[in-house]
Amino acid sequence: MLSPRQGLLRPVGCGVEELRRRRREREAALRRARREQQLVSKRLLRDDTPEEAEGGSVASILGEAEIQQFLWLAQRGTEEKEREGALVSLRRGLQHPETQQTFIRLEGSMRTLVGLLTSNHALLQLEAARCLHELSHSEQSEVAEACLPATSYLLTYLAGHSSDLIELCLYTLGNLIVESEAGRRQLLPQGIVPALASCIQSPHLPVLEALGYALSQLLQAKEAPKKIIPSVLASSIPQHMLRLLQPGPKLNPGVAVEFAWCLHYIICSQVNNALLITHGAVSTLGLLLLYLAGSVQSPEDAGLELFLLQKHPSLLPEGLWLLNNLTANSPSICTSLLSLDLIKPLLQLLPVSNVVSVLVLTVLCNVAEKGPAYCWHLWPGPLLSSLLDTLALSDTDVVGQSLELLQLLFLYRPEAAQAFLQQSGLQALKRHEEEAQLQDRVLALQQTALHR
Amino acid sequence: MQLPPAVHARLAAGPGAAEPLPVERDPAAGAAPFRFAARLVRFPREHEFFEEGDVQRHLYLQDVLTGVAGVPERPRVPEFTCQMAGCCQVFDTLEDYEHHYHTLHRNVCSFCKRAFPSGHLLDIHILEWHDSLFQVLSERQDMYQCLVEGCTEKFKTSKDRKDHLVRHHLYPGDFRFDKPKKAKGPASPVAAMQVPTEAVGDDGDTMEVCSDHMTPPPEPVGEKRTSRHRIPSTICFGQGASRGFKSTKNKNKHQ
C-alpha cells in the first residue's frame, strides 16, 4: 500500500528542487503501485489552521491512559464543553500513527467511539465522526479495518440532513472502501449503493464532492466490473452524475473531477456503455470538453479538441485516442478535419513523442483511407514532407504507420508518389530495408513509387 | 497557436456539419503486406494507456486537503438560542446550529420525543410504535419492513427483521436504531432509544434536548406536542441550499 504522507504534512519552506524531486519520487511510486495493482490513495479532511487556546500547535502522541481518560470524559463528563474538549484532544492525538495503534488495541475503545457517534449530543457526534475519519485515513490496514463496525451507522447518517456530518461520513466511507475488499464485502449488502443514490440528490456541493470521491473508490475496486458497476448502472446514479457534469456556470470543478473519474471507471470496465449513451453521456462529455477548451460550439466540430490539446500536452494521448475513435468510421468528421485546416496543427504534434506520432499518423490514416476525395486534400500540402521526416526516425511503430499512410496516399493520389521520388523518398525508404517488421512494406512502396 | 482562418469562419457562421466528402475505397488499400484498417480502439481498465492519468489522479487525491467542517473557519454570528420548545442550546455559528437542529429536532417523533437520524427511520418508528392499526395488521401479514434503504423485505416480527438485518445485510446485532418496542405501550416515558443499556461502558444518554436543563426530560402526556417537523420558515441555512434537501415523505404526523 502506498504511503506518501509527506505531501500533506511537509514543513513549509522546502526548496523548489526538493519539492520536484519528491514529486517525481511519488510519481514513480504510484506507477510501481499501479503495475502491481496496489494503487490505494485516500483523502483527508482536516482543519489545517493552528488550534487556538489549547496550548501548542502540534498534537502530541497519546498513551493508553490518556486515551482512556479522554474517552471517559467524553462519555461521562458533566460539562458539555469538557466532553467536547476531550474528544477534540483525542482527535488531534489520532493524527499520529502511534496513537492510532494504541487506540485500536485498547479494549472497548471503538465501541465507545461508536456509542459517541450515535449519541444524542450533536457536537459530540461530529467530533466522534472526525476521530473515525482520522482512523480511516491511516495507511496501516489494521487501523482502518478497526473502523468497520461503524459502517452501518455511517450509511444510516447519509440519509440524515446534517451536511457536515454527511460529508465526513462520505469521506470516511471512501477511505474504508479503498482500504480492503473485506470492507467492500460488508458495505455492499449494507446498502451503500441505494444510500449513495439518495444522497446524490443533495444540493450541497461539499456533500457532492465527498460522494463523488466515495463512489470513485467503489468503482475503482478490482471486483467492481462484476460486483459493483452493474448495480450502480441500475440505480439513478448515472443520470445524476451526468447532470453534475453539465457544462455551464453551475459546474463545480471539485465535484466534476470526482464524477468524471467515476464515469471513466465505469466506461473502461465496459459493462454496459450503451446504457450510458442512452442517458446522453456522449453529448454531455463532448460539450464539457468543448466548454473546458473555451468554446461553446456544437460537438460536431471535432477539431476544437486540438486546441485543448495544445494547451495541455499531457492530454495528447487521450485526446488523440478520442480523435481516432471519432474519425475511424465517420466521413463527416474526417471532412471537418480537412475543411477546418486541421491537418497542419496535427502534423505539428508529431515531434512530441513516439506514442503521440503513432496516434497522429493513425488519425491521418483514418482520413486517407476514405478515398481519393479525401487524399485530394492531403496533397499538395505539408503532409509529405512531414512523412519524409518521420521516415528518418528509427522507431518501428512510427515508421510502420508512416508506411501505411504512404500506401494510402500513393494509391489515391498518384501524383504524391511522383513528388515523393523527387524529394529523395527512395533514400528515406532504403534506411529501413533490413528491418524485419518493415521490409515487406518498404519494398512494396519502392515498387509503387517507381512504377507510377 | 492561432485558430486557422477556416475555423474562425466556421465558428462565426454557427453550428452545422459540413457535407461529407464521398467515400470511395480501393480493395488494394491496406492489402498485404500492408495492414491498416480504420478501427475503434478500446482499452481495458488495467491498460498501460491509463497509467499517466491514474498517477495524476492519485497525486490529486493525496494532495487535496479539504478543510474540516466547523472550527475556526466558519464566520461567527452573535449568539442565538435554538427556537425549539424546551431547547435552550446556544450557538455562535450557523453551521453548528444546522447540525444541532438536524440531529436533535429534525426527525423527532411527536409522540415520544425520540430523535432519529433520518426521516425513513422516524416513519418506521411511528408506524411500529404508535400506530394501533399496525398492531392489528401485523397479526395477519408481514408488516415489519427492513430498515435498509432499497430493500423491500417485510417480516412477521421485529426479531425476524433483526435476523434478516444481521444475516443478509451484515448489520451489527446491537444496531442502535432497531430497538424492539417495549411492552408498556406508546406513552411510555423511558430513556432514549439511542443507546442500548447493555452496551459496555455506555451511559444511558438521556433524551435531554437542552443540555443545560437540570430537570429530567418531561413526560410526554403533559407536554405541548411539537407538531412541526419541517424547518421553521425563519431559518435559512446558508451555502445557497434550499431548506435541507427535499424529503419525499411528509413527517407531519399528528396523533
Condensed summary:
By secondary structure, chain A is mainly α. Helix content of chain A is 68%, strand content 0%. In chain B, 25% of the residues lie in helices and 4% in strands.
Describe this structure in words.
The complex is a heterodimer of chains A (452) and B (255). Helix content of chain A is 68%, strand content 0%. Chain A is an all-alpha fold and 452 residues long. Chain B is mainly alpha-helical. Chain B has a two-stranded antiparallel sheet. In chain B, strands 4-5 form a two-stranded antiparallel sheet. Chain B is elongated. The N and C termini of chain B lie far apart (72 Å). Residues 68-72 and 184-255 of chain B have low confidence and may be disordered. Chains A and B meet through helix 2, strand 1, helix 6, helix 7 and helix 9 of A and helix 1, helix 2, strand 1, helix 3 and helix 4 of B. Strand 1 (44-45) of chain A pairs parallel with strand 1 of chain B, so a sheet runs across the interface.
Q: Give the H and E element order of chain B.
A: HHEEEHHHEEH
**What is the total tally of β strands of chain A?**
1
What is the largest interface, and how many residues per chain?
A-B, 131 and 113 residues
> Segments of chain A where pLDDT lies below 50 for 5+ residues?
1-11, 49-57
Question: What is the arithmetic mean of pLDDT of chain B?
Answer: 71
Broad structural category of chain A: mainly alpha
* Inertia-based shape of chain B: elongated
**Residue runs with pLDDT of under 50 for 5 or more positions of chain B:** 68-72, 184-255
Beta-strand residue percentage of chain A: under 5%
- Structural class of chain B, by secondary structure, is mainly alpha
Query: In angstroms, what is the radius of gyration of chain B?
Result: 30 Å
Strand order of the largest sheet of chain B: 2-3
Mean pLDDT, all residues of chain A = 89
Number of helical segments of chain B? 6
Radius of gyration of chain A: 29 Å
**Treating each run of at least 4 consecutive H or I residues as one helix, how many helices of chain A?**
30
